[in-house]
Amino acid sequence: MPAIAEQKAVIPVIANSKILIRAQVKSMIHRLQLSTIILLSVNVFASEIQIDTQKKISIDTIKKGVVQIKVYSQSQDPYSPWLSGNVTASTGTGFLIGENKILTNAHVVSNAKFIEAQRNNQTEWYELKTLFVAHDCDLAILEAKAPEFYEDSYSFALGPIPELGSPVDIVGYPIGGNKISISRGIVSRIEQSTYAHSQIDSHLVIQVDAAINPGNSGGPAIQDGSVVGVAFQASTKGENIGYIIPKNVIEHFLKDIEDGKYDGYVELGIHYQPSYSLSERLYRKIPKDVEGVFVTKILQGGSAFGLLEKGDLIHSIDGLKLGKNGTVAYNGESRIDFVEIVDNKFAGEEITLEVIRKGERMILKFPAKRMPALDLMRSRYDVSYSYFILAGLVFQPMNRDLLETWAKSGQTQGGSQFLYRFNHLTELGNEETEEIILYRKLSHPINSSADYFLNMVVETVNGKPINNLNAFANEIQNSKAKYITIYFKDISLPLIVNREDAINSDLEIKKSYNVSGK
């Protein structure tokens, strides 16, 4: 399915106007390509959030329910994980929903150290706490600690997905002033696309021609008095092209957290291609009147792993017929990617596929499940990065944040294995395995000849297979051998380090480079 060519998640207004993320991403699950991306017990929800399409509310009432959020954040440096970045101040928007809960974007509060907020005409700021964050769909729930914050407030209800061509009002606190802002736009497109915050997750989005600027993030999109979406992304090409998170994604998030924790989205876990080719259809014995998509790869850990086979044609999902391009009829006239049907499910719920395999029809039924391996391919927030130093050589589990900062470091010689294995993590490993990479050296005479091994992935230490960083560290720290021998994947020559010399040099290296910890 074609992706939106250029997107940015609408960044909070940052004091130093710094670009948060710039990357070129290829989605591993839905074949979507996204060019430059930059970032601009609650059971109460089930009973209190109601669809209301008739209610009209005044601007004064809207002001009572929209929140200006100020965030002080600090993140760790993936390339130098013993260092923390500067504290930055930023602002975003949120709105009241349910009983004293504030809904906003995950990217507004990511890496937050302190959050405060105020509503229209309030004269002081109130401290907020984060209750739930969903980085895979860019949503978060906050709560004010002081009850006074909610005095004379208004909680919004969710409305239905708006129709194409209908107007919506985007409300928030964008850059350019301190007062609340309301801009109107027209719904121009509804489709599935990549969410810039995580860089790999794809869900339904609504495109509007309203200006969504830095600071608008997390603000409500209102139609007929109800919230029909949350502002979160804007196009970097063209003018006044913004995107909002629709009702079905919001409701999925709210339902997920009803048990007091956020579990995340399930994944079908396949690659596929359209079935336009007549030659391939004849070769695979596909009847003329049957449409669908051909499975090209099944990913380990996905819902379909061990059930679908390469070359299968998926004809229908849960009774909905696929077109040759992989779309299904949605909301009357619209068509969306069939994986959106999987998106709406929770772990354990049944997926039913009608498949044609080698000319024969069959029905496959299996439970939906998450793919933990995808967590390493997402941009990460609110986490610290584990690492291990041996003779000034820095080892770390492979992850997207490391890859992005490594790419900017200029020390990328011999990095093809790093890039290849990252892009194929879901095929080459499993959910219980970490790929440990030697990505950097802190220069010292003891490691002067180690450049050959930079950007390579560890396979064994002293003959023992390494599946994670703890195993790597334990094997080295517990070794009594004179030499530590490390083999890397696809390389026959090992790295050999004198254990005693490494221990002595590490003390000197860590002091010279101001490295604390491991």
Question: What's this, in brief?
Answer:
The protein has 11 helices and 31 strands. Strands 25, 26, 27, 28, 29, 30 and 31 form a 7-stranded antiparallel β-sheet that branches. A 6-stranded antiparallel barrel has the order 11-12-13-16-15-14. The radius of gyration is 25 Å and the shape is flat.
Second-tier CATH architecture of the largest domain: Beta Barrel
Q: Write down the CATH topology of the largest domain.
A: Thrombin, subunit H
Distance between the termini: 45 Å
Helical content stands at 10-25%
Shape type: flat
Describe this structure in words.
The protein is α+β, with helices and mostly antiparallel strands and 518 residues long. It folds into three domains: 58-259, Thrombin, subunit H, CATH 2.40.10; 270-369, Roll (Pdz3 Domain); 386-513, N-terminal domain of MutM-like DNA repair proteins (Alpha-Beta Barrel). Strands 25, 26, 27, 28, 29, 30 and 31 form a seven-stranded antiparallel sheet that branches. Strands 11-12-13-16-15-14 form a six-stranded antiparallel β-barrel. It has a six-stranded antiparallel beta barrel with strand order 5-6-7-10-9-8. β30 (483-488) and β31 form a beta hairpin. The two termini are 45 Å apart.
